[in-house]
Amino acid sequence: MPDYIAPTRSHGLVDILDRVLDKGLVIAGDIKINLANVELLTIQVRLLVCSIDKAASIGMNWWQHDPRLTTRAADAGALGSGDVEKRLERIEQQLRQLTERSGAKRRPSTSTE
What is the pTM of this model? Predict the structure, then answer.
């Protein structure tokens, strides 16, 4: 009995995925809900599926600056612990000065009977 050879697939799932990630795939669509010719809701959907290298080559690199996705962006955009302490000290100092000023204004106006 001859061995049955499975036909080779010209495009396997891996090949298709590789091509989509290399070239990119754009899906765009609009969903509109109207009632009696009055537009109630419009949803615009834009989806781009591609590799990170392809996205960077076309200028889409938002993930490099998103603090939820990278620690580098969080470090660059957020205040360090020393900065927070300095800022807190400056705020507390301003609060003390305001308190002293308001206390100095009240003292002369109070009289003893």
Answer: 0.41
